[in-house]
Design brief:
The protein has 295 residues and is mainly α. The protein folds into 2 domains: 85 residues, DNA polymerase, domain 1 (Orthogonal Bundle), CATH 1.10.150.130; 179 residues, Intergrase catalytic core (hpI Integrase, Chain A, Orthogonal Bundle), CATH 1.10.443.10. The chain is 56% helix and 5% strand. The chain contains 13 helices and 3 strands. A 3-stranded antiparallel sheet has the order 1-2-3, with no helix packed on it. A hairpin with a 2-residue loop joins strand 2 and strand 3. Helix 2 crosses helix 4. Pfam families: Phage_int_SAM_1, Phage_integrase. GO terms for molecular function: DNA binding. One of its GO terms (biological process) is DNA integration. This is Tyrosine recombinase.
């Protein structure tokens, strides 16, 4: 089965030119389904029928997976089986006419400005760990970058002269402005502490661990949890919480949706629209009064 999965990954990478994050998501979902088949079914990945896919989606639901997670899994499988069908590997698409579960439109979990200040004030930039973590948290909130984007940042992505970050993914270039605070702590981390633990001068990763290697996704999550536990804020805080808070705070202060979409790197503006659910009516009216020429 691995050969078909690898061929599919090559297809979505080189022909479809999907983002690395999407590639990883597809691979994770397909492998998870394959593991499910190995454990609960006598059918292999190629000979799956619609009943098995439905049973799997019910299995995910019973195991507490959210509607959005189930929808993403179905989308991954649909893409995979469409590829197999189009290339003559299979005669049917077992996901055909299957519909994703309806998703509730929930406001994202965000922090208030005071809570952001509280979280970002905890790491002290007087040693390597504190300086790195302070710069990273400030950067997360200042840019709304995804976890995958933060850990893949290189030194060269930061432009101190023009105060921005340049990201290149496939043929697209995304330029994200940087505020003075984030730039200041990045300079402290890079100029004073990063070289202390750097073992390979060829290493370009912006954020590194104590071994001088690029920080991992798991490492970033542990850092967020470490500081979250010290805040006593009664909310679930993840790296995505800072991304969501960044977006909502921009909109609350009058930023237009198209600009926020561009900064966040959303391909579809409907993805960005969810942040309006986190703005209360009073704040929306205030934004309207401050920005509309005839308010």
């Amino acid at each position: 089965m691995d050969v078909f999965i690898n061929q599919f990954l090559d297809y979505i990478k080189n022909e479809k030119e999907l983002s690395r994050n999407t590639q990883e998501s597809y691979l994770r979902d397909i492998n998870q389904f394959n593991n499910y088949l190995s454990k609960y079914s006598s059918v292999d990945l190629i000979n799956v029928n619609k009943t098995i896919v439905i049973t799997y989606l019910v299995y995910l639901q019973k195991n507490g997976k959210s509607a959005s997670t189930i929808s993403r899994n179905l989308a991954s499988l649909r893409s995979f089986y469409q590829y197999l069908l189009n290339n003559g590997v299979t005669n049917i698409d077992p996901t055909n006419n299957l519909h994703s579960p309806k998703q509730e439109k929930k406001a994202p979990n965000i922090l208030t400005l005071k809570e952001v200040d509280k979280l970002l004030s905890i790491p002290k930039p007087n040693k390597f760990k504190g300086a790195r973590d302070k710069a990273m948290l400030e950067l997360l909130y200042a840019t709304g970058l995804r976890v995958s984007e933060i850990i893949l940042l290189d030194i060269d992505n930061i432009n101190f002269k023009f105060s921005n970050i340049t990201l290149e993914e496939n043929s697209d270039i995304r330029i994200i402005p940087l505020g003075r605070t984030a730039l200041n702590y990045l300079k402290i981390y890079i100029n004073k502490y990063r070289n202390e633990v750097l073992k390979d001068t060829e290493e370009k990763a912006l954020f590194i661990n104590y071994q001088g290697k690029r920080l991992t996704r798991q490492g970033l999550w542990k850092i967020i949890k470490y500081y979250t536990d010290k805040t006593n804020i009664n909310k679930k805080i993840t790296p995505n919480t800072l991304r969501d808070s960044f977006a909502v705070h921009l909109l609350q202060n009058g930023a237009d949706l198209k600009s926020v979409q561009k900064i966040l790197g959303h391909s579809d503006i409907s993805t960005t629209q969810k942040y309006f659910f986190a703005i209360d009516d009073k704040k929306l009216k205030e934004v309207y009064n401050n920005t509309h020429p005839r308010a």
